[in-house]
Design goal:
Oligomer: single chain
Radius of gyration: 25 Å
Distance between the termini: 46 Å
């Protein structure tokens, strides 16, 4: 584009926005918080109309993109005002478009801007997208990188607009068509007629339990299993169709009446299986008719308590095997709720009243001695004995990366390669960041694998702490190409485990769904995709990524 035409487009944008009085959310406070690419949407220098027909997001073809996790960013206060489009002094990309319902009428919508799919769901900024008479919105100040814009409105289906901003882009057009939804209100009553919320509140007070006792609801087309899979750091409600809102949120602008635990917003009226869920356990399941507005479950304290488990272990010195007294053992679930116990004179520790949910397990004491880093899922109604859990004194390990510029931030995930002391324990990732050319982590002795990501670069390295002798671990980063992942278009969730064929390193391990597609940056090579549905059925797919990228089509997977 010539300098003259570039100035013309800026003038067009300013005149257009001044006439429409569009709400602007200034994202200058989150500049630089870029993230990996998800579904990639063609950008445009033309701020003109691009409205499409039908449901979902109106966008042009996807392109492969790069992948690098963004830093954790605390959600800033969303600066909101109505008025003409306010461009930054140093203009970066302006994302704009129209939000309408299925009949083309404009909508006043809520939104949350997030990094792309393969990092956390941390919000960069959230608020309302204001619209003029024709439903337009505008968000200026976006730096190059991958984003997701989640758009929602009352009584309408939420849409996720996944896109990537490329350097040199002035405008990026994203339109959303939000379809009207069906809402199912859910309440739970104990067998004696009390509301379950009152029953469980009494139980929590008696037991002073720090573990979450919140019930949730999911909807599926097929019958539900008794146990849901690990949601991999996300809420189990994301495994089902639609969107669940717990009753501690507002419903229709006012709190829900007593007895209701929440409302399920579903994409379209059709017969569905509705599961009452505690952590990963399905406590009850009912089938509802298309358009049914209310559902009542029956559940008492006994049914809830039957799902709780316990974990017992003996803490020992990793070198001598001697029992260790006074060691604090702690578990923390994915909602950051914790429970702890202290080992007795024989090294024994017992954690009780644990929900059937994944926990991070750790044990530590003064002087730095600690256990490895593990994940564990308690069994309902079972006291799981882990036997001897060894503790060690960790040492500091430093990392060097070859590839990108020395001042680029590199994100490292580190996972143990040693077999755990008990089959119920699973390794969990430790994370660190290389800044200004240096990164380090405190690790117990043993074998480890490190996975490094930096914008369009990735690399892996396996090492044994016994072989380092004070040397750094060197990771060679390779430039990536884009793997386009095509997901089912009916909103079904699938668990995807993407494994590097040469090293066996897990690249991606999470539940996906609810978006048109996504792209992950991978070095050229061969990969293995392991796909799982809600009832535990698994399929395997071989994936080849060339310098031009690759495709993984999951649209036909049930």
């Amino acid at each position: 584009m010539t300098a003259r035409s570039d100035r013309v487009w800026w003038l067009v944008a300013l005149l257009e926005a001044a006439a429409l009085a569009v709400l602007v959310i200034d994202l200058s406070s989150v500049r630089g918080a870029t993230a990996p690419s998800s579904a990639v949407v063609e950008s445009s220098e033309d701020p003109g109309s691009a409205t499409g027909e039908g449901g979902g997001v109106t966008a042009s073809a996807m392109r492969p993109g790069s992948s690098a996790p963004g830093p954790e960013v605390s959600p800033p206060e969303a600066e909101q005002h109505r008025g003409p489009l306010a461009l930054p002094d140093d203009p970066t990309t302006v994302v704009h478009g129209r939000i309408t319902d299925g009949d083309g009428a404009p909508l006043l919508a809520r939104f949350a801007l997030m990094p792309s799919e393969d990092v956390s769901d941390e919000r960069l900024v959230s608020g309302r997208v204001g619209v003029a008479d024709d439903g337009r919105y505008s968000i200026p100040g976006l730096e190059p990188g991958g984003y997701r814009l989640e758009v929602s409105a009352d009584d309408h289906r939420t849409e996720t607009l996944a896109f990537e901003i490329f350097a040199g882009t002035s405008f990026h057009r994203l339109d959303a068509v939000l379809r009207r939804t069906w809402k199912l209100r859910v309440k739970v009553r104990a067998p004696d007629g009390q509301w379950f919320d009152d029953v469980i509140a009494d139980w929590r007070e008696k037991h002073a339990s720090p573990i979450s006792t919140v019930l949730s609801v999911i909807a599926t087309e097929d019958p539900l299993p008794q146990r849901l899979p690990d949601p991999m750091g996300s809420s189990v409600t994301r495994l089902g169709l639609g969107r669940w809102e717990a009753a501690n949120k507002l419903f229709g602008g006012v709190p829900m009446p007593a007895g209701y635990i929440g409302v399920l917003e579903l994409p379209e009226p059709k017969p569905l299986h509705i599961g009452l869920v505690f952590a990963q356990a399905v406590l009850a399941s009912e089938q509802v008719a298309a358009g049914q507005e209310e559902l009542e479950f029956e559940l008492g304290e006994a049914g809830f308590r039957a799902e709780l488990g316990a974990v017992r272990m003996r803490l020992v010195d990793g070198s001598s095997g001697a029992p260790l007294a006074g060691i604090e053992v702690r578990v923390r679930d994915d909602q950051r709720l914790e429970a702890s116990a202290t080992s007795d004179g024989a090294g024994m520790a017992l954690l009780e009243g644990l929900a059937p949910s994944p926990y991070d397990l750790s044990a530590s004491a003064a002087g730095g001695i600690r256990s490895g880093d593990w994940r564990i899922v308690p069994e309902p109604g079972v006291e799981l004995d882990l036997g001897d859990v060894p503790l060690h004194v960790p040492s500091m390990v430093s990392f060097e990366c070859d590839g990108p510029e020395s001042d680029a931030e590199v994100y490292l995930s580190i996972r143990s390669l040693d077999a755990p002391s008990h089959p119920a324990l699973r390794p969990r990732d430790l994370t660190t960041v290389r800044r200004e050319g240096a990164a380090e982590a405190r690790l117990t002795s043993g074998r480890w694998m490190v996975h490094a990501r930096c914008q369009g670069w990735r690399g892996f390295a396996a090492f044994d702490t016994a072989d380092l002798e004070g040397r750094s671990v060197r990771i060679v980063l390779r430039e990536t190409a884009g793997l386009e992942i095509q997901l089912p278009d009916d909103g079904r969730r699938l668990g995807l485990r993407l494994v590097d064929g040469a090293s066996g390193v897990v690249i991606l391990d999470r539940w996906l769904g609810g978006v048109d597609g996504l792209a992950v940056g991978l070095p050229p090579g061969r990969y293995r995709a392991e796909v799982e549905n809600l009832v535990g059925e698994r399929t395997r797919h071989q994936v080849v990524v060339t310098a031009e990228g690759g495709t993984l089509d999951l649209r036909a997977v049930r």
